[in-house]
Design a protein that fits this description.
By secondary structure, this protein is an alpha+beta fold. It has helices spanning 2-13, 88-137, 143-188, 256-261, 383-388; strands at 27-33, 35-51, 54-58, 63-68, 75-76, 81-85, 192-194, 199-204, 211-212, 217-222, 227-234, 246-251, 264-271, 281-288, 299-315, 320-322, 325-331, 337-348, 351-356, 363-365, 378-382. It is built from five helices and 21 strands. The strands form four sheets. The chain has a six-stranded antiparallel beta barrel. A four-stranded antiparallel β-sheet has the order 3-10-8-5, with no helix packed on it. It has a four-stranded antiparallel β-sheet with strand order 7-6-4-9, with no helix packed on it.
């Protein structure tokens, strides 16, 4: 018992051991010095996507609508029937015109027969006049008989001339009637409205029973094989845009990264020669390639190139969003990571401009690990060396 108490007392009186605290391990990061690069300037203008070829389908006559064979969103082929109008009056006019042509052609047959008869009579009158003239020379026919034969020749020839005139008149009448029949044939076709080209019906504006009016759209159709973006640009930019220029087109209202991924390379196809007096802008039409989902009415932004300038650039991956702020990590000479709040500018590919919060030459962590915090010790390696390992 005594030995046990002595051992316990000795243990209680011995000094306690200090806990050993391990130093935090350094985080391996890749760094790259912030450098000044030549950045090509750009400016944007908003607009809408439109079909390069679009048409409003309207009636050329005032008649009731009998049937509409399509709806909005339907794809149609050139020549496909779209709308049927009440064309009974037009059909009656065409039948009447064709009947007039037939009647005149039959009348012409009778006049041809009369002309042949007149020609035959003229031949006989000339022969008779020749015989009587010969007899008159031999004093076997009287002068009266010779005069009567000459008068018969003139009368027969006059009938031939009259028949020729009647034939010319009928020929002109037949040509006029045929032209009227052709016009009636064309007018009869107004009752059936067909698609002028391959495309998509974008809007249906009429139903059966409505009265179609001249020039009032019944349907709208877009040719989906080619699109363009129409934007309005400030007049001060007029000297920097020319037909054929390459333009980056961003579709929709997505964020910068999503928009860049969905960007199209367009070319300036047309520039308006007049400037809007109210907004002091001019219209620019940009031809863009066709892609799935592209349709008229979509919002688009056109990014035009401008003059080059010097800008401080770093990799986009170095930016760490903190709510509404943009931050990044730099490495101090003591080997610690320090967070900096920066203001970003234009983006060019995989790099982004730093407008404020950073100076050139500072080592920036190119891809901060998720757990990296301000003040953490780091083992920095230049990005090029890290890639060589």
């Amino acid at each position: 018992m005594l030995s046990v108490l002595v051992a316990a007392d000795a243990a209680a009186c011995s000094p306690a051991e200090e806990p050993v605290v391990d130093a935090p391990a350094s985080v391996k990061v890749a760094v790259e010095p912030a450098a000044v690069h030549s950045l090509r300037g750009a400016f944007e203008a908003g607009g809408v996507v439109t079909a390069r070829t679009s048409a409003d389908i309207a009636s050329r006559i005032v008649v009731p609508v009998v049937a509409v064979h399509v709806a909005a969103g339907d794809r149609v082929r050139a020549g496909q029937p779209l709308v049927v109008l009440d064309g009974r009056d037009l059909e009656a006019r065409r039948a009447r015109a064709n009947s007039s042509v037939t009647a005149l052609e039959r009348a012409a047959v009778g006049v041809f027969a009369d002309r042949d008869a007149a020609e035959s009579a003229a031949v006989l009158a000339r022969a008779t006049h020749g015989r009587i003239a010969a007899l008159h020379e031999r004093r076997s026919a009287t002068t009266q008989e010779l005069d009567e034969a000459a008068a018969a020749v003139r009368s027969a020839e006059a009938r031939v001339t009259a028949a020729d005139a009647r034939l010319s008149e009928l020929a002109a009448a037949i040509e006029s009637a045929r032209a009227a029949a052709a016009e009636a044939e064309v007018a009869a076709g107004f009752a059936a409205i067909s698609a002028p080209f391959d495309g998509v019906i974008t809007e249906r504006l009429v139903d059966p029973g409505n009265l179609a009016a001249v020039g009032v759209p019944l349907l709208r159709i877009d040719d989906t094989r080619a699109f363009r973006v129409e934007v309005r640009v400030d007049e001060s930019r007029a000297s920097g845009i020319a037909p054929g220029d390459s333009v980056e087109v961003l579709l929709g209202t997505a964020g910068a990264e999503e928009a860049s991924a969905a960007a199209l390379e367009g070319r300036v196809g047309e520039i308006a020669r007049t400037v809007d007096a109210t907004s002091h802008t001019f219209l620019v039409k940009i031809d863009v390639p066709t892609r799935p989902g592209l349709r008229s009415g979509l919002f688009a932004r056109a990014r035009f190139a401008a003059g080059a300038r010097e800008a401080l650039m770093i990799p986009v991956a170095a930016i760490v969003p903190q709510g509404q702020l943009s931050t990044l990590f730099v490495v101090t000479p003591e080997g610690r990571a320090r967070m900096r709040v920066v203001r970003t500018g234009a983006r060019a590919g995989t790099r982004i401009e730093i407008v404020a919060g950073l100076v050139a030459g500072g080592p920036v962590v190119t891809a901060p690990p998720p757990g990296l915090r301000d003040g953490d010790p780091v083992d920095a390696t230049t990005a090029g060396q890290a890639g060589a390992r």
